[in-house]
Amino acid sequence: MSTEVRQMFSSIATRYDVTNEVLSLGIHRLWRRSAVKLSGAKEGSHVLDCATGTGDLALAFKRKVGSTGRVVGTDFCPEMLESAPAKAAKAGLEVEFQVQDAMALTLPDNTFDVASISFGIRNVDDPVQCLKEMARVVRPGGRVVVLEFGQPTGPYGALFRFYSKTVMPAIGGLLTGNRAAYQYLPRTAAAFPAGDRFLSLMDQAGAYSERAAHPLLFGTAYVYVGTVR
Ligand SMILES: C[S@@+](CC[C@H](N)C(=O)[O-])C[C@H]1O[C@@H](n2cnc3c(N)ncnc32)[C@H](O)[C@@H]1O
User: Fold this and answer.
1) Residue of 3, 9, 17 to test ligand 1 pocket, by largest number of atoms within 8 Å of CB
2) In which pathway does it act (predicted)?
3) In a domain, 172, yes or no
4) Residue 125 annotated in ligand binding
5) Band of pLDDT at residue 144, cut at 50, 70 and 90
6) CATH code, domain carrying 105
7) Which of 20, 71, 103, 115 could form a disulfide with 48 if both were Cys (CB 3.0 to 4.6 A apart)?
């Protein structure tokens, strides 16, 4: 499973950013800002961004933590990471990037104030293991922040499902040449436990003293925040 996921991301890596921008109408930037705000990261904080892909959330964190802070962006797909260092350099931001599997990080315990993952946790083989692993590398009292799609309901939800099932694969396929990837991404988003169901995964991880779900745009996405025991 993880090999197929890695190959899929590798095939869309060079077109990922432009496709993201078009398909989200730029809204992903606002969502990332919310994730950074809710993480409690401040000047000087040490942050790990898992499944960082092309590094957008890592860069948003670096803007927050400043030159005294440290941000490490990790992903298990080297091709997704490829453009990240140049993006950071262009923005004048110093971020470290490493190839790492979010389910088995080769980083010491209690290293970071915050660990984050955006639109990545639904792609890992075992989200509970990933939540444990992220908590392991965060100091007690620090936070784990997850940004992930939800399943909005009502008339807006119907519109969103139509958009995900038809518009996303068509445009994503056109821009990347991999229509299947843009069928997989909304399909996994529709099936992934959101809201209270994700909070119970956080409970199963047994690593958080508090956890909360913050809906964005009528539940189109959520920011989940866990305080590490
Ligand atoms: C939809 S992209 C999101 C990228 C980025 N976080 C963002 O918000 O744009 C999902 C990313 O998760 C990565 N990924 C999936 N499973 C992973 C794992 N087990 N360990 C590390 N990265 C993983 C993929 O390589 C891909 O870059």
Assistant:
1) 9
2) Quinol/quinone metabolism; menaquinone biosynthesis; menaquinol from 1,4-dihydroxy-2-naphthoate: step 2/2
3) no
4) no
5) very high
6) 3.40.50.150
7) 115
